[in-house]
Specification:
Layout lengths: L3 H18 L3 E3 L3 E4 L6 H14 L3 E6 L2 E8 L2 E8 L4 E10 L7 E3 H18 L3
Antiparallel strand pairs: 1-7, 2-6, 3-4, 4-5, 5-6
């Protein structure tokens, strides 16, 4: 049986590991990918808008090849830019509120929202 002197450091390490596992933040991840099929720039814009709107994102055209998406959920807000051409798109962080962003990590749900948006854009681009 370990002595109390040895048990305390072990308990401290276990507690720290448990807290890290429950962390609400994760390194921020951008998204993007290749569109399916062929389409004009205007058709790509429509596909991105439909995909985002289907997930609750407000999609605002910022000019040819750029859409700004804003997602408001409860007290959280995420804002992304989506630059695109006829073949590819990217999803880039712009700003957020109530997502604990510190320049490197952000609330772990943000990455899921971006991944869902990315997947929806790809699916939408494959529709006739």
């Amino acid at each position: 049986m370990p002595s109390t002197r040895h048990a305390l450091p072990i308990l401290a390490l276990l507690a720290a590991g448990g807290l890290a596992a429950c962390s609400r933040t994760a390194p921020i991840q951008d998204g993007g990918g290749a569109f399916l099929g062929q389409a004009s720039l205007g058709q790509r814009a429509d596909q991105i808008r439909r995909a985002g709107a289907g997930l609750g994102w407000a999609m605002q055209p910022e000019g040819p090849g750029l859409i700004r998406g804003t997602l408001n959920l409860r007290t959280h807000q995420a804002v992304v830019d989506i630059p695109y051409d006829t073949r590819r798109f990217s999803i880039r962080y712009v700003s957020s509120s109530n997502l604990d962003y510190d320049g490197r990590v952000i609330h772990r749900n943000y990455n899921s929202w971006v991944q869902n948006l990315q997947n929806a854009i790809i699916v939408e681009s494959g529709k006739p």
